[in-house]
Amino acid sequence: MSAPFARRELTVASVRRLGAYHVLAVDDPDGQAPRAGQFAMLAAKTDWGGGEDERPFLARALSIARRQDGQLLFLLEDVGPGTARLCALAEGERLWSVGPLGTGFSDPPQGRRALLVGGGVGIAPLAILQDQLSGPATALLGFRGAEHAAGATLLAGARVATDDGSVGHHGLVTQLLEDELAEDPAAVVFACGPAPMLESVRALCELTRTPAQLALEAPMACGFGACYGCVVPRRGGGYLRVCLDGPVVDAAELERVDAHAGSPA
């Protein structure tokens, strides 16, 4: 269930570095508990917008990475003006939040092992998913290199793959997934990451007839289905709104994962 579409003013508890990422902790003791896979639309209360053209920044859609001790945690990478401002927040500063929004992950069938497959900043919703699962789960995470691989510490016992071989398996995280599915064809896959990774996961799960849920990401202006700016094509025709019908969708609903429907690597 999503929260009411009203923004709330919250206080930053801390911002800490985690390799190439920042972990933003926000005090929200009275907020609605999120389901793994849901997100919030965040904007700094001050200095939100500017530059040569003085353009405003739309709020940024960020997956909720964890809820603990009355705080919400978000995993960010400085990839543009909006995320740069959020990464620069300091303890005690205020921000606007709308959320939790969207459709989260569904629980795996009883007794079936969950494979959590993440790439880059897309590991965020898998951290809270691991917290909420009661059954067995294996985390498989892929990164560009060692600095980004530091993010793997958000999940317990994760197996890591890096593009440059600096940490863990030298290669793609989907290679780790192939091995796991060969050993346990009854597993269920939960994935979030860059679009090429998600497309590889989708195609592999279709080939092996493995149930899979994919957490998509797309540029969002509103976060609750009004603007239709985040649509992706649905298998058989029509479109899905990532913010409302997702961000978590059944992989079987997609013919493919579009290039814009994934998180930064």
The count of DSSP E runs of length 2 or more, i.e. the number of strands, is: 15
Globally, the shape reads globular
Summarize the main sheet: 7 strands, mixed
Q: Count helical runs.
A: 5
N-to-C CA distance: 28 Å
What is the correct CATH architecture of the largest domain? Answer: 3-Layer(aba) Sandwich
Strand order of the largest sheet: 10-9-8-7-11-12-15
Order of helices and strands: EEEEEHEEHEHEEHEHEEEE
Rg is 18 Å
Estimated share of beta-strand residues: 25-35%
Q: Can you tell me the residue ranges where pLDDT is under 50 for at least 5 consecutive residues?
A: none
CATH class of the largest domain: Alpha Beta
Total number of distinct structural domains? 2
The helix-and-strand class reads alpha/beta
Q: Compute the average pLDDT.
A: 91
- What is the CATH third-level topology name of the largest domain? Rossmann fold
Describe the structure.
The chain is built from 5 helices and 15 strands. By secondary structure, the protein is α/β, with parallel strands linked by helices. It has 2 domains: 94 residues, Elongation Factor Tu (Ef-tu), domain 3, CATH 2.40.30; 140 residues, Nucleotide-binding domain of ferredoxin-NADP reductase (FNR) module (Rossmann fold, 3-Layer(aba) Sandwich). A 7-stranded mixed beta sheet has the order 10-9-8-7-11-12-15, sandwiched between helices. Helix 4 runs parallel beside helix 5. The chain is globular.
